[in-house]
């Protein structure tokens, strides 16, 4: 599992790319070529958790167009509302496809294995409320996505407990504010927790 960090690529130099990738966000999407040249795995979020800025989102899409090693680009979504998220997905999915990157559906409260348009996206981003994303339905959806060989990312993962849970259900990558804002302090801990849990060793809370 990798930790995707929303930072300029200069701050990601030297980290083990087996465990660290870049998270593009509309407010921080410059120097994409540096990320591509470094052969770093990356994903791109849409910024909707705080505020969707269409112009910046479109600029981000231009920056990452045709870039290698991309695992997902999130369609815009509505926090906590899956029905409204699907409406936005239907609008934005074909637009993102034009930039030749894998399209991610963002899961929100109300998503089920039955109401997801599985044939229209390439990856999943687990959003939603804390209760929902750590619940049974999100785990079931993740299991089905992995059966389809899809990349699955979970947002807002900042603690060892949540890292452990993410790995246990098969998540491929995570992001969290602590890793992006305080990468020097928290990235070494996060990487160590991933290694330890992957080796089925005991670790303590972050």
What does this entry look like structurally?
38% of the residues lie in helices and 16% in strands. It has 206 residues and is α/β, with parallel strands linked by helices. It has an eight-stranded parallel beta barrel with strand order 1-2-3-4-5-6-7-8. Strand 7, helix 6 and strand 8 form a beta-alpha-beta unit. Helix 6 crosses helix 8 (183-198). Residues 201-206 have low confidence and may be disordered.
Characteristic key phrases:
16% strand, alpha/beta, disordered C terminus, 8 helices, 206 residues, 8-stranded parallel β-barrel
**What is the CA-CA span between the terminal residues?**
17 Å
Q: Structural class, from secondary structure content?
A: alpha/beta
Biggest sheet: strands, sense, closure?
8 strands, parallel, barrel
Q: Main sheet: which strands, in order across?
A: 1-2-3-4-5-6-7-8
The counted number of beta strands is 8
Into which percentage range does the β-strand content fall?
15-25%
Share of helical residues:
25-40%
Encode the helix/strand succession as letters.
EEHEHEHEEHHEHEHH
Uncertain stretches: 201-206
Mean pLDDT: 95
Q: Name the overall outline.
A: globular
> C-alpha Rg, in Å?
16 Å
How many separate helices? 8
What is the gist of this entry?
The chain has 206 residues and is of the alpha/beta class.
Architecture blueprint of SSEs:
Elements: E1 2-5, E2 20-24, H1 32-37, E3 42-44, H2 54-64, E4 70-74, H3 82-97, E5 103-107, E6 123-126, H4 130-133, H5 136-147, E7 151-154, H6 160-168, E8 173-174, H7 177-181, H8 183-198
Parallel strand pairs: 1-2, 1-8, 2-3, 3-4, 4-5, 5-6, 6-7, 7-8
Helix pairs in contact: 6-8
